[in-house]
Amino acid sequence: MGSALEDRASEFRRRAASATATLARWIGEGADAPLAPRPAIDAVQLDLQNLEQDLAHHPEIAVLARQEEIAATEAKLAQASRKPDWSVEFAYQQRGSDYSNMVSLGISIPLPWDTGNRQDREASAKFAAAEQARAQREELLRAHVGEVRALLAEWQSGRERMTRYERELIPLAAERSRASLAAYQGGRAGLTDLLLARRNETEVRMQAVQLEMETARLWAQLNFLTPRGGGAQ
Description:
Elements: H1 2-27, H2 51-55, H3 59-80, E1 87-93, E2 102-108, H4 118-185, H5 191-223
Antiparallel strand pairs: 1-2
Helix pairs in contact: 3-4, 4-5
């Protein structure tokens, strides 16, 4: 049993070293700094009532929203170009004594050529591009909302299981270890029974640690999903 536990401890140390190396790739020497206190993973910064609004700040969705704005602006400009842009020019010239002063007035009226085909096709293409950009943004937003709801359900399940381990499974396993020790000391149980009880307690505690690690990973994904987080605790 001791060798198996040491092997598992070595595996956890390897995973910690690998995580530190990956973090150093992004933040440099700060990856070796002492760890901060453990965060409270029983709350996330996402407002479940306004999930779509929070996720609208996600970088991928924000980029599509910007593309949608640009496409909509281009569509409006294409529509405006269909209307002739009239212009009026007025000029006054004061000439020498041998000539009278002169006033001129000019009106410019563009005559669009083949408006029904060329400009209409251009405007229609721009509006179609704007509609496509809107549909892409909405589709990606719905996909992200679905993913986040699934993560939230998994995180909440992890919290419930952690509570069950803390309140029921770990105390029960510890009580069985104490009972086995008392029975062994009283000659009512053998060494094998005691070792099995101790091993069971150790396994339960290791499972609780593993569950907490997985739940903390989900919490981190949810808590830092958007640049600004959410509004609700």
